[in-house]
TrEMBL record:
Domain of life from the UniProt record: Bacteria
Gene it is expressed from: coaE
Presence of the UniProt keyword Chloroplast in the record: no
Protein source organism: Tolumonas osonensis
GO cellular component, one term: cytoplasm
Protein name from the UniProt record: Dephospho-CoA kinase
Reactions it catalyzes: 3'-dephospho-CoA + ATP = ADP + CoA + H(+)
Keywords: ATP-binding, Coenzyme A biosynthesis, Cytoplasm, Kinase, Nucleotide-binding, Transferase
Entry's Gene Ontology molecular function annotations: ATP binding; dephospho-CoA kinase activity
Amino acid sequence: MFIVGLTGGIGSGKSTVARDFTALGVPCIDADQTARDVVEPGEPALAAIVQHFGRDILQPDGTLDRRRLREKVFAEPAARAWLNQLLHPLIRERMLQQCQQAQGPYCLLMVPLLFENQLQSLVQRTLVIDVDEATQIRRTMQRDNTTEEQVRAIISTQCPRQQRLALADDVLNNSDNVTPEQRRQAVAALHQHYLQLAAATDSTAPPSR
């Protein structure tokens, strides 16, 4: 399977672009959804989290209390390191399984922190959705009903824009001056490009760069 890693800073519109690709029949694996799946009730990871943090990490219905977990790991670097060591390999393995099971010449792997977590080796191509920082802030404030200070704090933990662009194989401009039709046309052009790349790639080869 030829895998395209789709990434971009917060508020760049990754999900919108992913939906454009999905409308063209391209399977999309969402790392955020996979991260939620591996801690569902019945999953070994959730049992390990409960054993480590205690049962008060659960909601009354037995699901993970994500807010409480975030509070715990934010306050304790060692706890955050333990959690990452538990979850990251599981998420990586689950994402690769989903990619290999996907139907079609290629699939998208949408990972917000693709470069930050050094996951480029999982994909053959990287596509960055790009907007300027002011747009990131405004969109995220509107979407999440949060403050500018909070959004800037998130941006500061992510890969700097210029570094992200330098690492990208392909860039899609998703600024406000790009109309939905122009964005869809850009996606369609990339789709054709990826179809050609996938056809030229030995589908039995493991992901490499």
